[in-house]
Amino acid sequence: MTSKYNFISSIRYELQQIKQMNWSVDKFTKERKDADQEFKSSPTFGSQLKRSPDAMEDAVKGALIGEIDPLTRAKKVYDMVKFHFVWDGSYGDHTEYGVKKAFEEKKGNVADINITLIAALRSAGFDVEPVLIGTRDVGRPIELHPVLTDFNYVIAKLELRWKDVFARCCG
Q1: Could you report the per-residue pLDDT of 93-120, keeping only the tens digit for each?
Q2: SS3 string of the chain?
Q3: CB neighbours of 166 closer than 8 A, spacing ≥ 6?
């Protein structure tokens, strides 16, 4: 079932731009490429995808000793991350603690844990990308233009055996 908020008639406004008296324009509504760039350059999202603690890389290598089958390797990395963490119960599309601190403290929000999953799968040699989604609490995202507050969850998209596999470790 979808969210009840998807069926409530409403009009939501978002300020697109302001034209100043000197003819300059201040844009507020983002285009998809701008939203993508904002996430990639964010210290609590994009930068975290590039960080993988040495302890995590060692744990990944230890879990994969002797494994050749890609599906088995992916499952082992998934299980390693899933059983390593305790979810703190909060959602978010940006890390709260950061990958390194979350891995060391063994706790984090949805983004901390699932971005760590992405980093661990990449460390194991998989091609993994983050996918932003919104839970039922925030309803369906607006398709016309990206509204960053329409997303509150990040999952991993892994191409495995010519199929896309979506994974999350908590929530």
Answers
A1: 888 888 888 899 999 999 999 999 999 9
A2: CCCHHHHCCCCCCCCCEEECCCCCEEECCCCHHHHHHHHHHCCCCHHHHHCCCHHHHHHHHHHCCCCCCHHHHHHHHHHHHHHHCEECCCCCCCCCCCHHHHHHHCEECHHHHHHHHHHHHHHCCCCEEEEEECCCCCCCCCCCCCCHHHCCEEEEEEEECCEEEEECCCC
A3: 131, 155, 156, 157, 158
Contacts of 40 (CB under 8 A, 6+ apart): 46
How many other CB atoms are there within 10 angstroms of residue 5's CB atom?
12
* Joined tokens for residue 162: 């010519």
pTM, 2 dp:
0.80
Q: Which residue has the tokens 């844990």?
A: 113
Radius of gyration for the chain, computed over Cα atoms and rounded to the nearest angstrom: 19
- The letter for the amino acid at 20 is Q
pLDDT (tens digit per residue) in 30-62: 777 887 888 888 888 888 887 777 788 888 888
